[in-house]
Specification:
This protein has 138 residues and is mainly alpha-helical. Helices cover 95% and strands 0% of the residues. It has one domain.
């Protein structure tokens, strides 16, 4: 409860008392003034309630925004780390595949050097076949 809620409640009770006193004594002025105090007290109390709710909403909204910023930063950091991990894995695999390709290429060159005649015949056959396919397309 805030100050306006308390003061509005007290003002409402005073107004009720004044209205009742005016009714008992049969005087209209205290009744009207009491009714005015009652309405003013209810209005002040309602203002206090709304003010407290607005403060709560403001605090909750600020908390919500802070939480959203925190989660956003956390997601950004997680995405950065995942990207770094994927980059490192791709680099590692690329190096491994490159090494394997060089090894197999060297083995193929060594085999071709050991079998020069067969390699020459295969290259000539492939060139003839490719030339034949190209010439048929025309």
């Amino acid at each position: 409860m805030n100050r306006d809620q308390i003061e509005g409640g007290i003002r409402n009770i005073k107004g009720r008392g004044r209205t009742a006193l005016g009714a008992v004594t049969g005087r209209a002025r205290p009744q009207v003034e009491g009714a005015y105090e009652q309405v003013a007290g209810v209005a002040q109390s309602a203002y206090g309630r709304i003010h407290a709710q607005a403060e709560d909403l403001h605090r909750d909204g600020r908390h919500f925004a802070d939480e959203a910023v925190s989660r956003g930063r956390s997601l950004r950091d997680e995405a950065y780390e995942r990207g770094r991990s994927l980059r490192d894995e791709a680099t590692h695999r690329g190096r491994r595949y490159g090494s394997e390709a060089r090894r197999q290429g060297r083995a193929l060159v060594a085999r071709a050097e050991d079998n020069r005649g067969t390699t020459l015949a295969l290259v000539a056959a492939a060139a003839f076949g490719l030339g034949w396919l190209v010439s048929r397309g025309r």
